[in-house]
Amino acid sequence: xxxxxxxxxxxxxxxxxxxxxxxxxxxxxxxxxxxxxxxxxxxxxxxxxxxxxxxxxxxxxxxxxxxxxxxxxxxxxxxxxxxxxxxxxxxxxxxxxxxxxxxxxxxxxxxxxxxxxxxxxxxxxxxxxxxxxxxxxxxxxxxxxxxxxxxxxxxxxxxxxxxxxxxxxxxxxxxxxxxxxxxxxxxxxxxxxxxxxxxxxxxxxxxxxxxxxxxxxxxxxxxxxxxxxxxxxxxxxxxxxxxxxxxxxxxxxxxxxxxxxxxxxxxxxxxxxxxxxxxxxxxxxxxxxxxxxxxxxxxxxxxxxxxxxxxxxxxxxxxxxxxxxxxxxxxxxxxxxxxxxxxxxxxxxxxxxxxxxxxxxxxxx
Length: 365
Prior knowledge:
CATH 3.30.1330.140, Beta-carbonic Anhydrase, Chain A, 5-stranded mixed β-sheet, globular, alpha/beta, 6-stranded mixed β-sheet, disordered N terminus
């Protein structure tokens, strides 16, 4: 079952990026609409409800903005179960005031519902070509991995090392095979799911117990289907015509939250609103867009700057999301125009808000 029904193959990305900018934007809006339509369907709703009833652990993924990191697709998990927080290079710091409060609030919300939280702290890389790794870390996998380990230690400092309610887990993602690489609690032992065979499936519970001797039993049981799903996904991928996107072709900068619907490879640079210094990643993203235009990787008729803010409730929460989205668009446009004047007149700005409950996206003025 394809649980990320509107994830697009790289061939679609290739076709779309060569269209005029207005047609690219129209395609993007239609893509978001289709995602919301599928998310709201009875089948998707029941799949999420059934999965949540069987696996009560909440799952949060801290990961890079790279569209190839679609963990729902890679683990055969219904869309909406894994809650991603995306940022340039997967860079996070619990010392950041907004991010620390956001993560704490999410954990406290799940605890109030009697649930535990599994936090997947991701980094990504390519075994076959360094340039297919993480541009946000300058393709330095060691640095990305060390950062993930540091974030794990921060999570333990905030939520405790007994792991009764929160379990942080460092998880690599090999983008060519879309394989998870699980790092054990001692950071030395590793389980590379690309190398797992059908014979290993029966011994997976024992393997996870050795890898994570301190994980609560309930969370281990809820981690198991992610591992099994990734092994099955890798096997299916080997049978398919899986082409690889090697070069950056992004033509969109997304700033904010709620881009769950966008995992098309090399289409967008997504910057979460978590760091107190948003100017630096915005400037870097602008530089990538400028280089893509300069080297004819995308048409030079324009690029999209898209701000997005989610809301849970109508009324005040929705109104606040509207104000937030407008601010982020204005702030991001100012940074890009100031730091990259050659593409200042190429900006096409769209502002939106998104309902967490329905995943419906609404453009605002």
